[in-house]
Design a protein that fits this description.
With 117 residues, the protein is an alpha+beta fold. It is 36% helix and 26% strand. The chain is built from four helices and six strands, in the order αββαβββααβ. A six-stranded mixed sheet has the order 3-4-5-2-1-6. The radius of gyration is 13 Å and the shape is globular.
Amino acid sequence: MKTMEEKAKEIAKLMEDGKGNDVVVLDISQLNSWTDYFIIVTVNSSTHWQGLYKQVKDYIKQNDLEVHLTNKKSPDGDDWNLIDLGSIVIHLMSEQARAFYDLEKLWHAGTVIDYKN
């Protein structure tokens, strides 16, 4: 059985393969009680987000995960889309939203996980 870290790495690789930009996996398990991993990805458009979300949904079905919540930070959904899988939270963000919210800086005490190995 895969660990949550292994699943987070696989999702990150999936995002990169889907042309997501600047994919980062943060282990924040020691910093809070509600999730263990953030996956942060820059997307180019709502169409790009939809394509990546479809890949995540397919992965979820194959790996015994479930979506707890999806949320859009802006009405048109182009700025920040969040997919909450419980132990893994995926942030699909426009370049502008990612620069503005700077989650990597906000959660700087988290550990960056190398998902490419």
